[in-house]
Each structure stands twice: as C-alpha cells, then as structure tokens.
## 1
Amino acid sequence: MRLRYLEAGSGRMVVFVPGWCMPARIFEPQIEVLSRRWRVVSLDPRGQGQSEVPRGGYEPTRRGQDIRDLLAHLGGGRVVLAGWSLGVLDALSYVDMAGDGRLAGLVLIDNSVGEGTPPPARTRPSTFFANLRQRRDQTVRGFVRGMYKTPQDEAYLDEISRQAQRMPVEASIRLLSYPRPREFWRESLYAVRRPVYYAVTPRLRNQAELVAQRHPQPTVEVFDGAGHALFVDEAARFNASMEDFLARKAAWA
C-alpha cells in the first residue's frame, strides 16, 4: 500500500507522526517554521490524510513497521522522531521493534507513556465508541473542536474533521484499543537512551515529572494554557522548544 507524507526543508531530519485519525497537515505550524533550518517530514499514517485506506494494519506492530519503512525510504542518518497523541504509541511501537539506532532524539507530545499509577477505573463505561458508530460526524467534529483552547478557523476545523473520517469506523475504534499493557509503553520509552522531549498538558504533569526523574536525558515541558493540540495552540513556544532540542540536545553524532 502507499503511504503519503509531506516534506519541506533540508538538512538534519525530524519526522512527525500525527494522532488518532489526524492528517499530516496538522503539523503545518511546525513544517513552516522548522523547515527553514531542518528537513521536516510529516506522515499520513495508513488510513489517514491522503494515504491509502487498507482493510487492516490498525494495530501497533504494523504501525510501528510503517514508521520503520518510512525511515528506510527517507534514507540518511539519524532522525528526531516526534509523535503526538496516538502517534506517541506508534513511535514507541517503532522503538520496541527497531531500537534507537536511527534516532537522534525522541519527541512525545501529550499522551500517556505508562508512568505512575494507572488512572482510576471509570464508574461508567465510555460512550465514545457507541457515539462513533451511531453519530460519527457529530462525534468526530466535537472531538476535533475539543483539541484546541485557542479559536480556530471554521474551514480548518471542517477539513480536519472530514479527513478524520476517511477510514472505516471500526478501524478507527481499533486504533483506540491497542492490545498492550501500559507497562509496554513505559519500557519502550526507557529503552531509548537518546535524548527525549516530553511535551504535555496539565493532565500528564505527574507522568512528565517522573520521566524527568527517570530518563537519563530528559526534557519535559507542561503547556498549562494549551489544549491537546498544544503545538497548534502554542505554536511559537513549541517551535522554540523544538529548535532548542534539535540544535542543542539531539544526539546527531
């Protein structure tokens, strides 16, 4: 199958992997700014953006393999791999199968990495999957709006919402049901000996503090005023942090 990616700039490479059902173009604020100095690549994972929509492969091993295939296709030396939301888990799946040999650094944006105590069990089961099956368009549009704390253009929100519904609904649900214990993600993270940048919103503050204590080369940052898409809500701050990580902390040698 064919996977599509966006690419801009030249030099040392940073590769972005977006979250659940999201397109590569969601990283446009980073592509525009970081490509002035770096080679920036943003992946449309299988079934997302403008990549092909296959019947299967919506599980962590195949998604990690897709990242490995992308890096092999791009060639070159080390890269900084940056995953957001579900892309955090896809990046850690890549690390589990391929190790950190290709990595100059790992950037994880606003998802759990399995640190600390598990969240308390829900008193009621979530209705999100049922809503996806029964009222998909309304549910996805509400999800997309909820990713931001800053006002976004209506045409932009509409396009992101429409692209987020390309894959079959049951495939989108499988993406949210990865068959891995939370310890898998933590062990995958700490197997990475390269520098790590963990950027989170306040709900993950405790995990960020633990990563700062336990990883040998950590950078952690809490975006208190941002939504889940913190790299859009606070693009200037996030881009400045990425520039610093790429220029001063990543292990390119």
## 2
Amino acid sequence: MLESMESVGLLTGGPWIYAVIAASVLLDVFLPVLPSGVLVIAAATAAAGAATGQVAPHEVPDILALILCATTASVLGDLVAYRLAWRGGARLDRAIARSRRLTVAQERLGSALASGGGTLVVLARFAPAGRSVVSLGAGAAHRRARDFLPWSALAGLSWAAYSVALGYYGAQWLGTTWLATGVSLLALFGAGAGAAFIMRRHPEPAEAP
C-alpha cells in the first residue's frame, strides 16, 4: 500500500498539479469528457496519504489550495462560456433553438434566477454536461451576471469541496489508495446521476397564458 501511495504522490506532486487541475476544470465546460473530477480526487487522495505519513507532505497539494484552485477555475470557465454565449449572435441562438435541452434549460434557469433562487445552477455543476448547458443558456438568454455568477461560485465551491472530501476521507477510511480513489469516483458519478435525475424531474416552466 505504501508503494501505491507513493506512486500517487509522484503523479500529483509539485506545483504543476494546480495548473493541470485548473486547466482541466476550466475547459471541461466546453469539453465535459475532460477528467477534472478524477484529477481533483486523485490529488486529494494523495493529500490524505501525506496526513497519515504515507506520502511526503511536499509531494502533494495542499487541501485548501486545491479547493480554491478548483473553485476558481470552475467559476472562470462558467464566466467564459457565459460571455461567449452572450456574444454568440444569431448563429448560437439558432443552435439553441434547435436543441430542446438547451431551450428548456434556458427557460428553467430564467425562472429560477428571476425568483431569487439558483439551485438549478448548483445541481447542474454535478450533472454530466449540466454545467455547459446552464452556463451557455444563461449567456444566450442574457441573464444578468450578478444573478448568475454568485450561484456559479456556490456551485463551483460545492463541487470542489465535495470532490476533495471524497478523495481525502475516502483514502483515510479505506486505506488502499486505488480502491479508495475508485470508490470516491463512484460517489462523484452517483452525485452526478442524482443531480441529473432531480433536474429531469424539475417541473416544466409554465406556458404564458
């Protein structure tokens, strides 16, 4: 097990891991297939090894810095997608009009933000590709940044803290690094599936009389 922990420490060690995680989290709003969650959990797993003395502390990222890095990159990615969609013009409008998923998300998001709530934004951060749909939908619908970005920040922080907690505590409880990482990833995917299920069951926006 020690060798396994050390191997994870080598993979996630050094300041470069922050740059890799930040780039992956920022870009996965456009490319949801990027393994941003895997990277965050693996780094947190290594940090748990350092906490128990199984990996040298200098070889792994700091937990708080890891959460801050992932949160900041998540918000920046949302903001980039939001601004691009805002300026997208007629071509993007036509693309959204052809996509029922984007159209419905746009309407739901507008209702949620108008009523002072943004739970949909937080849920979408966990659901597969949900972050992309919500960020692009908010920009294309020209929702106010002050209504969208605070919820984006809460969503990014929730996702980052949850992912780090899974990797950190999963390794402490299970002990075996790769098993702990696998179980943590299953829990992250389970949260995504649950978020997607809740979003699908969200009431359809009422039609105007």
## 3
Amino acid sequence: MENSTYIALSRMDAQQRAMSVVAANMSNASTVGYKRESVLFSDFLSHQHGSKQAEGADTESYTQDRATYRDFQQGDMQSTGNPLDLALGGEGYFQVRTANGVRLTRAGRFEEQQDGAVVDENGNALLDRDGQPIELPQTDHRITVSADGVITTETGEQGQIGIVTAQDNNKLQAEGSRLLRTDQPTTAVERPNIVQGMVEGSNVQMMTEVTKMMEIQRNFQFMAQFVDAEATRQKNAIDKIVQVSA
C-alpha cells in the first residue's frame, strides 16, 4: 500500500471523528445547557529523505486529530414558569455535587425533593456560595430567586446560589451532555445574572450541523473512492508485472 493511500485513510479517519461530533451535537439540540462541540485537525508533515524525490514531494501531509473544543456562546432563553428553573445570562456555571465530586453545569433545571433539598434532573444537589447543598423549608411553597442567586421563601432568605467561573473554559472536561469537570480552581462570579422561570437551551443550530454533516459525507466518499481507485491501480500494475515476468 503506497503512502498516498495512508494519507487518504488518515483523512477518512478524521472525517469519521468529525461525523461523531456532529451527530452528538444534533442529538443534544434540545438538551438544556448543552454547548456544541467542534473538532480541530492539523497537518502532520512526514519528511521524505532521498536524492530522487520529485520537486514538492519532500514532505507528506497526514491529517492529525488535535482536539475537540466547545462553543460557549449563549443559548436561547426558554420560558418554563417553573420557579426552580434557572437560566444564566452571561458567564458562569452552577455547581452541583455528584457521587464523583463537584461538577459545573449550565443546565439550570432544578426541583425540590420531599426533604427540601434542591437538586438537578439527576438528583445532584445544587450548591450555595459556600459549597454546601441548598435546602428549603418543606412547608414553604413560594420560591423567589433574585438575579444574584438569593433564594427567598415566605419565611425569609434561604441561601444564595453559588455561580463560579473556571480559569480556562477550554480545559473543562465533559461528563455526559450536561456536566463539566475541572481540575482548576474556580472563582465566584460577583454579579451573576440568574433568570428565574427560564432555562438556557442548547446553542446547537440544526441547519448548521446538517450542512456540516453533508460536507463530511461528501469528503469521506471522495476519499473512499480515491482509496478504491488506488487499490485498482496497484492491482492492475501487479497483474501487468506478473504477465511480463511470465
């Protein structure tokens, strides 16, 4: 198999990776707080040695998968009327405590359990500014959340939701479609903008993703046709060599 085929296969592998990312974006188009992902590819140059190399053929360019990164652009606000549905306008993340530790999220769909604990859709506790789970009096039913995260019921203030930022968003690691893990120190947002009764929708644009998917399919098919043509060419060349040798 010649190097040109290996180069084509590296591009096919990259297109498969890009397709899986686009598919994940499309499947999470309606996931609250989801941030679309993109892939970053680069050329890996292989230097060829030898005095008989043709001009311009001293390097070979393979496709290298470098990273997957997120688009942190704000998603559309969606009204729900639920007092514990909370959307973040601008920077920051909610903090929730999971079985594996504290995680960050933009998915602000919360609910109150029978014991008064405020949790997300997976039962993870919402944390306050001190990193402690927020609990509401079981007898209170009128819940108000201010823009800076102060929770008030008919019996008074019940705590303040902690909104934090990470030093480098690009180093956040996804756990599922809603949670983000970080090994960096986090910093409290001094003036968060929490909107009660709303959630932040996914920032995936379906038409954009469909267009990307079609482009990826075309590129993959072109590379597959090239590999088939190269295989046929090499087979024909071998057949001719065998005939001459015979």
